[in-house]
Amino acid sequence: MRTAAKPVAGALARPAALPRRHALAGVPVTPSTPARTIRRPAAGRPGRPSAQLSAAAAEVAAAEEDTRGRIDWFAQWWPIAFVRDIPDKEPYSFRLLDQPIVIWKDQQGVYRCFYDACPHRLVPLSDGRITPEGQLECPYHGWQFKGCGTCTSMPQGGDPSAPRSSATAFQCAVKQDMVWVKLQPAPADGSEPDTSGIRVIPELEEEGWFAFGDMWRDIPYDWATLIENVIDAGHVPFTHHGSVSKRQTSGDYNLRVTERGEWGFRGVWEQGPRRGKLGAQHTLWDAPVLMRHTIDSMDKSGFANITAVYGVPMSAGRCRALVRQPFKFKNKLIPLLFKVLPEWRSHLGNNSVLDEDVIFLHMQERESALRGMGEKPAGQVYFMPAASDAYVAGFRVWLDSVAGGGPWGPMNDSYLLRAGRRLPEKQLLDHYHSHTERCSICRPALRNLRLARAAAAAVGIAAAAVAAVSLFVQYVAPAVTGTAAAAGPSAAGLAAARQAAAAAAAVGQSGWPPLVALAAACAAVAAVAGLVWRWCHRTIPQFYTGERPFARNRVPGEFAPEI
Questions:
Q1: In this structure, what DSSP letter does residue 368 have?
Q2: CATH architecture under which domain 75-185 falls
Q3: CA–CA distance from 87 to each of 284, 473, 543 (Å)?
Q4: Could you report the per-residue pLDDT of 421-454, keeping only the tens digit for each?
Q5: What angle in degrees, to the nearest 10, is found between the helix axes of 390-401 and 223-230?
Q6: Cα 208 to Cα 219: distance, rounded to the nearest angstrom
Q7: CATH class label, 202-431
Q8: Are 56 and 389 in contact (CB under 8 A)?
Q9: Entry pTM
Q10: What stretches pass through the bilayer (predicted)?
Q11: What does the alpha-carbon distance between residue 290 and residue 323 come to, in Å, rounded to a whole number?
């Protein structure tokens, strides 16, 4: 169990070592959520009928003494992106806890992170460039900075050693192929910071385990909504019917929290998915960043799997989900098959799965805020009558008692103002801006598919044209020539007769005249090219947007409980 962090005051406590806005331009500013006393859920509040106290709400009340303190959101390690998705020669911008940051790779191959504002005139450093010397250069006046934040060049004049000339450098590290950032001052000497608090997946360090289909997406709902969703096993057979599950597999969701603390909680679902065919599923909420479900079905089915979701708070009502699917198989050949599968196909599949709940979660989030989520115990806002809601209740206990309601405080009117208006469906289902354009797997795949579509069109048109010309020369041209020969000299008639005889001889040898065989071959090529064009034409839009109806509404199958 991880040792509980020392409580700090405030829903979004500022690192003490960071200067305030008036002390240094371009440093992070704490979101305006005032400190508040810890509000604990209580059973039997006035006006609440005790008969309506659900099992999940009862657990909320019973657990109120189990958690204490506050989390310092700025003192946590957050995964920002997979290493492969951050360009080697370009700055990478991101928004973490409502703070603009820029990540870049210096000449030594070390990833660095700055607050994304030049101390000179506050323009985004992410619009600049990485110089051949491996320094970050501001796009406005060319100031240059080393990885530790020290300014090394002021082309217009000035003293680069002045304290206010330095960029604000944050702690940055690489673990398990992901770039992590902590919004705390980086070591002044540029050395590697302490990474002991990074939430890794230990199994990936063990023999036989491998990660497949690592992907991410920026999602238009809050970090808390993401965690509440992915930790809830009971929604999968219904929301994701026809994609990753089936309604018919819904069974006994007797979820049970087995251990809890400021670090999060553990739980077990004894039956597990697919009505127990795979064995028990163990869940860990490794607060405040990692949710993982683990199934060890090596004895039953010959494999083990982890579904891991890292939730990263970007701003109110917006988060990044980084998804990993580690596997282990008894059969050593199966991992080799995974290596030949195109990863972009799994990215499209994961985006489609995320589409299936993005719209109603965006709406649920606002409805929850309007009904007082964060100002009231979760059991008063939600009606959670069954053990299937135990993990959601456990997460809400942690969020309320330990995390001050979340990075932005409770979901109240202030939260709604910061989250902004409700987005239209087109934006909610966007794939390109939320993933494709910055994904090192999908961006080149999209380019290649567009090239393949154009090439298929060109080949298909050319092949069809050759087939048409071949048939014309074989059948139409001799008829026209024969007609002309009938009115012309006898020599022309003799020539036409010889040509017909030659054609007849060719038919006798091969079955088809050469030009007909050529036309048939070209027609086959045109047909294949047409199929390729059609497949590309249908696949390419998936890199840009999701679409209705979702799988659950177009795949047959109804919930039929066993009697």
A1: H
A2: 3-layer Sandwich (2.102)
A3: 32, 55, 20
A4: 999 999 999 999 999 999 999 999 999 999 999 9
A5: 150
A6: 32
A7: alpha beta
A8: yes
A9: 0.82
A10: 451-473, 515-533
A11: 10
